[in-house]
Specification:
120 residues, alpha+beta, S16 Ribosomal Protein, Chain: A, 5-stranded mixed sheet, 3 helices, 34% helix, elongated
Length: 120
């Protein structure tokens, strides 16, 4: 049985609230889970202590049992200092799209044309 430490969504429409749970990876996102390990409330400010609450001992137990974490939960654990930061490389995500590149080139060309006229 493959165990995942992941988020299970609760709360109403437009008001998300998540439980951090240890669950069988075959179960649905909001379905059956083995143990509740904490909570995450994205509506609270980032510096609030109530935003992410975790039972560190139980999380370390499940990691010791071979549980895998999802990307979001691993970021919480990195921020808490439970696991070391891993290198992430999504180089294309920060790159502008084709049309944005074209607009930037046009803008640079327009800016360069008056600069050349003023130089003469």
């Amino acid at each position: 049985m493959a165990i995942k430490i992941r988020l299970a969504r609760g709360g109403s429409k437009k008001r998300p609230f998540y439980r951090i749970v240890a669950a069988d990876s075959r179960m649905p996102r909001d379905g059956r889970f083995i143990e509740k390990l904490g909570t995450y409330n994205p509506l609270l400010p980032k510096d609030s202590e109530e935003r992410v609450k975790m039972d560190v001992e139980r999380i370390q137990y499940w990691l010791g049992q071979g549980a895998q974490t999802t990307d979001r939960v691993s970021r919480f654990l990195e921020a808490a200092g439970i696991v070391e930061k891993k290198e992430r490389s999504n180089l294309k995500k920060g790159e502008p799209g084709k049309k944005a590149k074209e607009r930037a080139e046009e803008k640079a060309a327009k800016a360069a044309a008056p600069a050349e006229e003023n130089a003469e």
